[in-house]
Amino acid sequence: MNLPVWFEVATFVGLTVLLLADLALVVRRPHEPSAKEATAWVVFYVALALLFGVVLLAVSGGEYATEFYAGWLTEYSLSVDNLFVFVIIMARFQVPRKLQQEALMVGIVIALVLRGIFILLGAAVIERFTWVFYIFGVFLVYTAINLVRHRGEDEDYEENAFIRRMRRVLPMTPEYHESKIRVTLGGKKLWTPMIVVFLALGTTDLLFALDSIPAIFGLTREPFIVFTANIFALMGLRQLYFLLGGLLKRLVYLSLGLAVILAFIGVKLVLEAVHENSLPFINGGEPIHAVPSIPIWLSLSVILGVLVVATVASLLKTRGETASEAGNEETTAGAVAGTDPRPAAAVPADLPADLAADRRD
Question: What are the domain boundaries of the chain?
């Protein structure tokens, strides 16, 4: 069943207006949101996604709505896991707390544009070469195995070649100038570190899409559902960043739960590839109908169940941790670093001398 064109157009127009309004709000008043404000926004965006699923149900029936919910839950849970790396990026570049919200927002917009291109390319490839599901499936199972193998290891952020190149070639100020990315000092136009932060967040999220996009294509082949699920998963992510804060470390079983989900979707993709077999060396290229397929309602049930179990188990495992302990750790970090309570960032070896000195200061 095809979705009505008017519905797709209205959805994209509405989401674009919402994102632009959100961006304008952040640019107009950069600040660190309170727990109450962050909670309100997270609830709003989650409720909006749930409502969109209901509208999909009314417009197109239950199949697309179920696919959307399954895709949104998968992308949202993967996005929460990505927040660990966002925290490290903010610390690495010593972004002031009041500027972090805008940095996250711009990074998310960049990620949406890049993911949109990625989704269109993926949809075109799948439409023409269904055997690519074999590759997607094996890749997701491989990713799941790596998540289990490296579970519990400290998260780290390593700049990609593009970011390292930008920092070398762009004339840059040693300090931030509010949220500006370009300023004029002494008659010379210079970039500020904020441009590197924007690019780091956007390109890092694109790398995360290498497993999240194949995963959601394992749940639906409708590009509209894939893209809207990604948009709703990323909207509200910056507020969730401030809301969870130190609580992120309590989700100790999240990566294990994500590994189970990715492995499940990987197996589902391989089974679907077998049903639409186009490889001559497997059953002469003919589909193998005896192999069972996994219905979307079962996929949604597994994803939701695994997330609930992983979250509850994590909270029970870390129930002894208190907010005061987290506060003590932050105070200790501030004492070590000086007067700044933010985590001290390592000084990249290839920074210019004046910039490296400023980072150490």
Answer: 5-320, 322-361
